[in-house]
Design brief:
This protein has helices at 3-12, 17-26, 33-49, 54-67, 75-95, 118-150, 158-178, 193-200, 202-219, 243-257, 281-297, 310-329, 367-377, 380-400, 422-432, 450-461, 477-483, 493-501, 503-518, 531-540, 556-567, and strands spanning 182-190, 224-230, 233-240, 259-260, 263-264, 267-273, 303-305, 333-342, 347-359, 363-365, 408-412, 440-445, 465-471, 488-491, 522-525, 544-545, 554-555. The protein is of the alpha/beta class and 571 residues long. Strand 11, helix 15 and strand 12 form a beta-alpha-beta unit. The longest helix has 33 residues, at 118-150. The chain is globular. The structure holds ligand C2E and calcium ion (CA) (2 copies). Ligand C2E is lined by residues 338, 354-355, 366-368, 371, 380, 384, 387, 411, 413, 469-470, 493, 526-529, 547-548, 553.
């Protein structure tokens, strides 16, 4: 029977529209029909009480089950889900010509012995049929998107995956309720998995994930439960007697997953030992996740056990996530400018725009504290646009004062590599502020993969000047340099530490200078703090510098006054 036929049958049998919709898909989720009716009955009534058609709740339940909103930390999925909900409501409203309220429907139309008005029943039939059509279409679309991401690999269907996670959760719950031993949550992921994906391709990345699952299958006993929560994040829940059993398990696992087809894999393991079995499972998972993140930052070991302090960093994250929109709206976000100097000329030749958050009670918050978080939740885009606009306005102010030869560079987060509108946004900002593309430069951090190359080509074609930020801090910088049309190399701060401490560091830098010259690229050294560094740089022919030795980042007004003084211009 098709979903459509099932839904009509249930409706005829007198079930609520919410039950008819959810019931029609119950089998897909391995749900017992009567359980499905029970679940949807309450949701449907609740919705109708508020006035909206119960079909909508039924449909949203189906979407939720199909897309498996299991992991609170998966923000992409959450965003995707929100978009899908809006899409569903829009399409349903359109198909029903705006008639999505049930207030007019007689109450006893609904329910197993419904005896309502014919016109109400017809409306319900129309609504249910529309909903089932939309759902089938959206689920097919969802499957196609997933399949496209995973190409030909034997990936599980969405529904099966959501079921697996539910079953995992159920088994964990049973273990927590029945085990007489202690229980540990071990969450782990693969360090730099995104980079591996970029370098070797997503297909290879997926093979790695299958390989880890295979190894877990071989290693875990019956009472050691595991699941692949999302992407490269895995969870093992196990009972244990002594704490050493946990580390021994992790070591055994680590030995087995360390190497895949000549590629070294490094895992980060976070462990949470359950103290209160009545705590929500999600909270237990969150704690294991916090420990995993702590393990990631530790260079000495790749295992971390949860500590109460970790919660503090979670609170910080929450604070940033919850307050950033307000900070932007209330202009607590400020653009600071750090001058770039020419050693030879001993004068300012440009500046870099750097974001600061001046919070009314917390004071100055530096980008390192919030950029990694907003890069994860996508808010970085708004922040970058904000700073770019500030930089354009600043340049427009300089132009009005007759200064057009002091370009300002802005940072472009790696998130923009996938943002198709950023070039248009930049162009509009430049035009609106009456400045030129030569005045606003773009700093992009070296990353792997084709994305940077593609975006850089497009930007270059549009006439922008591109600076490769943090050169030498990542990997395969040379390849990217050869394949991507950057204009200027910004040497990472680490170079400055090395040139004074080792002869080898200086030698490498000399080669970079000569390479930049041969490639006819500009070169700028960042993090210059001492006279000794300035002298060494002068000696090897690197003229442009940025660093505390000359000036720290400063509020834009302060920089403006310094510029005016240097150029002798009038504001
Ligand atoms: P970055 O682009 O490498 O920026 C240079 C950082 O080095 C700045 O830190 C700057 O204050 C610091 N610095 C400058 N001179 C010296 C020095 O002599 N010694 C040392 N040790 N450090 C120096 P800041 O402002 O805290 O920014 C940190 C990072 O945050 C930036 O690194 C950049 O990756 C990111 N960031 C800052 N503003 C933005 C922004 O508007 N958008 C985006 N996407 N990222 C930003
Ligand atoms: Ca930068
Ligand atoms: Ca940098």
């Amino acid at each position: 029977m098709t979903h459509q036929e099932k839904a009509v049958m249930f409706l005829r049998q007198g079930y609520h529209c919410s039950q008819a919709v959810f019931g029609a898909f119950a089998e897909d989720f391995g749900l017992d029909q009567s359980a499905a009716f029970k679940i949807s009955a309450y949701f449907g009534s609740g919705m109708r009480w508020g006035g909206s058609c119960g079909c909508m709740t039924g449909a949203l339940l189906v979407l939720g089950m199909a897309m498996g909103f299991y992991d609170t930390q998966d923000r992409d999925l959450e965003e995707y889900g929100n978009r899908k909900t809006s899409e569903f409501i829009r399409r349903f409203t359109e198909q029903m010509h705006g008639e999505i309220e049930c207030r007019g429907v007689e109450k006893d139309t609904l329910g197993p012995q419904g005896t309502g008005r014919e016109e109400d029943l017809q409306r319900c039939h129309r609504a249910v049929s529309a909903v089932v059509d939309i759902l089938e279409d959206m689920m097919a679309q969802f499957q196609a998107e997933r399949a496209c991401r995973c190409e030909n690999l034997d990936t599980h269907s969405i529904i099966r995956r959501a079921n697996e996670l539910r079953q995992f959760q159920y088994k964990v719950n049973t273990l927590l309720c029945t085990s007489s031993k202690q229980v540990a949550f071990i969450q782990f992921d693969i360090r730099q998995f995104k980079i591996i994906n970029d370098l070797y391709g997503e297909k290879f990345g997926d093979q790695i994930l299958d390989f880890v699952v295979c190894r877990l299958e071989g290693l875990c006993r019956k009472e050691q439960l595991f699941a692949n929560l999302r992407s490269d994040v895995f969870m093992v829940v196990m009972e244990f007697g002594e704490r050493e059993e946990i580390t021994a398990f992790i070591q055994r696992l680590d030995e087995q997953v360390r190497l895949f087809q000549n590629v070294q894999l490094q895992m980060s393991y976070g462990v949470y030992i359950v103290q209160d079995r009545y705590m929500e499972q999600r909270q237990m998972e969150d704690r294991a996740a916090m420990a995993r993140k702590a393990a990631k930052q530790n260079v000495l070991t790749n295992i971390a056990f949860y500590k109460e302090q970790f919660k503090e960093s979670l609170y910080n994250r929450k604070f940033i996530e919850e307050n950033m929109d307000k900070a932007l709206a209330e202009r607590q976000i400020k653009m600071y400018l750090q001058p770039k100097y020419s050693i030879k000329q001993n004068r300012i030749v440009g500046a870099e725009a750097l974001v600061r958050w001046l919070h009314p009670s917390r004071g100055m918050i530096y980008p390192d504290q919030f950029i990694p978080i907003v890069e994860e939740n996508g808010l970085i885009q708004k922040i970058d646009y904000y700073i770019w606009e500030e930089a354009c306005q600043f340049l427009s102010r300089c132009k009005a004062a007759g200064i057009t030869t002091c370009p300002v560079s802005v940072n472009m987060s790696r998130n923009h590599l996938r943002d198709s509108s950023c070039i248009q946004v930049l162009t509009e900002m430049i035009e609106r502020n009456g400045i030129t593309k030569q005045m606003l430069e773009l700093e992009i951090t070296e990353t792997a993969g084709g994305q940077i190359r593609k975006k850089a080509m497009q930007l270059k074609k549009e006439g922008f000047t591109l600076l490769m930020d943090d050169f030498g801090s990542g990997y395969s910088s040379l390849n990217i340099l050869l394949e991507t049309p950057f204009d200027v190399i910004k040497l990472d701060k680490k170079f400055m530490e090395n040139i004074v401490s080792s002869q080898k560091g200086l030698l490498i830098l000399e080669q970079v200078v000569s390479m930049a010259n041969k490639l006819e690229m500009g070169l700028l050294a960042e993090g210059v703090e001492t006279k000794e560094q300035v002298d060494l740089l002068r000696g090897i022919g690197c003229d442009q510098v940025q660093g505390y030795y000359y000036a720290a980042p400063m509020p834009q007004d302060e920089f403006y006054h310094i510029l005016i003084k240097q150029y002798g211009a009038t504001a």
